[in-house]
Prior knowledge:
Layout: H1 6-17, E1 26-36, E2 39-47, E3 57-63, E4 69-74, E5 85-93, E6 100-107, E7 117-120, E8 127-131, E9 136-138
Parallel strand pairs: 4-9
Antiparallel strand pairs: 1-2, 1-8, 2-5, 3-4, 3-6, 6-7
Amino acid sequence: xxxLPSIAVLGFAAFLARPAxxxxxxxxGAEARAVGPRLFRFDVTVRHGDTGWVHYADRWEVVxxxxxxxxxxxxxHPHVDEQPFTRSLPRVFVPEGVEEVVLRAHDRVHGLGGExxxxxxxxxxxxxxxxxxxxxxxxxxxxxxxxxxxxx
Length: 152
């Protein structure tokens, strides 16, 4: 019986042990809380195999039922050692009559296309979660406890 050279076996083992390449960015959890009339705070958890500055999840969006982007949370740096990660948008205006939104994430290589999460919005004074003013844009902050627009 012929034996495989040990270098070939080791090479194949190294191939199997390598980390999976970064795929599309997935929204894996979310929570919405009413903070005022038609204003909501969104806490969204994204999972993506960020590899560095060339390939990382660079934003997530709140999308209305008509496909219109209601708000965008810009992520300005990779989260290589923090997966999954949660970031917030504190004051998102949602038009009257919208009872459900879609949360989706984007990465610098694949764009949109990962797992999306549909979230029913709470009534005023309540919160909604899922596992898995105006069109606001929020910038990423390096620390989760950093202040955003004077709020934590």
